[in-house]
Design goal:
The complex is a heterodimer of chains A (112) and B (112).
Chain A: E1 4-5, E2 11-14, E3 19-25, E4 32-38, E5 45-50, E6 54-58, E7 61-66, E8 71-76, E9 85-92, E10 101-102, E11 106-111
Chain B: E1 4-6, E2 10-13, E3 19-25, E4 31-38, E5 42-49, E6 56-57, E7 64-70, E8 73-78, E9 87-94, E10 102-103, E11 107-111
Parallel strand pairs in B: 2-11
Antiparallel strand pairs in B: 1-3, 3-8, 4-5, 4-9, 5-6, 7-8, 9-10, 9-11
The chains are: A mainly beta (112), B mainly beta (112).
């Protein structure tokens, strides 16, 4: 059974701090990795994708991937109350005809 | 702007009824997905389709069926609704590798 694990949280950080969200996956052949953000009562939306080892930065967001450790993380710098949401990690084998595997999500709360 | 449209935002049905949930995408995507989301259980894949008239079972297909007669439309069918099918149902679509998902706004189904 392929699995994606996340701490459910809640993760609480003060405004302006760095929030660190972590994800581990079981399938070694996974190729593509994604972070989705879901606000309460809304649908998930894609915020980051990463395909190779190392860091990928997009504004205040940095995704980190370590395939040897089967570990993906999302850093949010200068956290804002508007970042309060549930963050879903998703993993793909990269093959057509297969579906993403989602973690259960980590709830982030940023206090002002 | 990309769009995935689910026919109803809220739906109330009685046990034993046959229920149809409709989803339409305007992005010419090959892949379409049906998930349900319940508190503490995360997103669970019911069925997905990688091409017209093609379907694959997800993690929890029991009690559900799907139909994809046209590329843009993917329907989820509850053959005989039961109370344990009360849930938020999310439809999504994606391009050839099925990775970057675009979600509809969801249907909150209550089965009484």
């Amino acid at each position: 059974q392929k699995e994606v694990e996340q701490n459910s949280g809640p993760l609480s950080v003060p405004e302006g701090a760095i929030a660190s969200l972590n994800c581990t996956y079981s399938d070694r052949v996974s190729q593509s990795f994604f972070w989705y953000r879901q606000y309460s009562g809304k649908s998930p939306e894609l915020i980051m994708s990463i395909y190779s080892n190392g860091d990928k930065e997009d504004g205040r967001f940095t995704a980190q991937l370590n395939k040897a450790s089967q570990y993906v993380s999302l850093l949010i710098r200068d956290s804002q109350p508007s970042d309060s949401a549930t963050y879903l990690c998703a993993v793909s084998s990269g093959q057509a005809g297969t579906a993403l595997i989602f973690g259960k999500g980590t709830t982030l709360s940023v206090s002002s | 702007d990309v769009k995935v449209t689910q026919s109803s935002r809220y739906l109330v049905k009685r046990t034993g009824e046959k229920v149809f949930l409709e989803c339409v995408q305007d992005m010419d995507h090959e892949n379409m997905f049906w998930y349900r989301q319940d508190p503490g259980l995360g997103l669970r894949l019911i069925y997905f389709s990688y091409d017209v008239k093609m379907k694959e079972k997800g993690d929890i297909p029991e009690g559900y069926s799907v139909s994809r007669e046209k590329k843009e439309r993917f329907s989820l069918i509850l053959e005989s609704a039961s109370t344990n099918q009360t849930s938020m149902y999310l439809c999504a679509s994606a391009g050839p590798l099925g990775e970057k998902l675009f979600f509809g706004s969801g249907t909150q189904l209550s089965v009484l």
